[in-house]
Design brief:
Blueprint: E1 4-9, H1 19-23, E2 28-30, E3 36-38, E4 42-44, H2 47-55, E5 61-65, E6 71-73
Antiparallel strand pairs: 1-4, 1-5, 2-3, 5-6
Length: 77
């Protein structure tokens, strides 16, 4: 069984660019206010989710390992 990631979007930062939808269309939805929401807060780890987080122009998306809470993106410095 592969890793699972906890996906969070800081909606106080989200500008509704929809880059997350472009990279992971099954992973995110925009609400009527154009704020992004993960479809599932815990999802299978994958390149699409990582690309979505990396492409967010305001870094509103964070990914952590669901089991341990260890950061995946953004990485700890």
């Amino acid at each position: 069984m592969g890793d699972r990631w906890h996906v969070e979007v800081d909606r106080s930062v989200c500008i509704g660019s929809a880059q997350c939808l472009h990279h992971a269309p099954d992973g995110f939805r925009l609400d009527p206010a154009r704020q992004s929401h993960p479809v599932e807060p815990d999802a299978d780890a994958g390149e699409q989710l990582l690309a979505a987080a990396e492409s967010c122009p305001v870094e509103a998306i964070t990914l952590t390992l669901a089991v341990s809470g260890e950061p995946v993106f953004p990485p700890e410095e």
